[in-house]
Amino acid sequence: MAPLAMRAGVVDGAAFERHELFGDEVLLRVVDAGDVEVIEYRSEDRDGPPAHAHPWDEIEYVIEGAVDFLVGETWTRAPAGSVQMLPRGVPHSVRVPSGSARLLFVTIGAPYAGFAREVSALGAAGYPAVDRLLEIARRHGLQPAATLT
């Protein structure tokens, strides 16, 4: 395994890209520092995305609110302060059971920003056909959990 590439430094908190993904706010806070990306995510999504896996590792920290995390086949309620650890390839999802939640994602080996940009652009043009969304997801390495067995 190649060593992790990450640029040292401090990133200005006011410097970020804002995107909307199906009503959720995504702030790409660090995307050009090597193999690590930092994303802030705000959601009221009661259903969340379909269970999926991807080729990067991910850590999700619940800043505010509570979420339900799906890891494998088990849902777990996670209040503020909880952390979800996701090695690459593990099927997962997240949903907000009530109110809103704010999370911080740290992705390692991370092409997440490109995925977020493309899906946001599609959403801005009107909600895309499912096949177009799936094509973008596949191109960025996301796989529906049903295809992982």
Could you please describe the fold and organization of this structure?
- This protein is of the alpha+beta class and 149 residues long.
- Helix content is 15%, strand content 40%.
- The protein is built from two helices and eleven strands.
- A hairpin with a 2-residue loop joins strand 6 (66-71) and strand 7.
- It is globular.
- The mean pLDDT is 88.
Low-confidence stretches: none
Q: In total, how many beta strands?
A: 11
N-to-C CA distance: 25 Å
Sum up the overall morphology in one term: globular
Q: What number is the mean pLDDT?
A: 88
Order of helices and strands: EEEEEEEEEEHHE
Main sheet, how many strands, which sense, barrel?
A: 6 strands, antiparallel
Sequence of strands across the biggest β-sheet: 1-2-3-10-5-8
Strand content: 35-45%
Number of helices: 2
Helical residues, percent: 10-25%
Radius of gyration, taken over Cα atoms and rounded to an integer in Å: 15 Å
Helix/strand-derived category reads alpha+beta
Question: What tags apply to this protein structure?
Answer:
3-stranded antiparallel beta sheet, 40% strand, 149 residues, 6-stranded antiparallel beta sheet, globular, single chain, alpha+beta, 11 strands
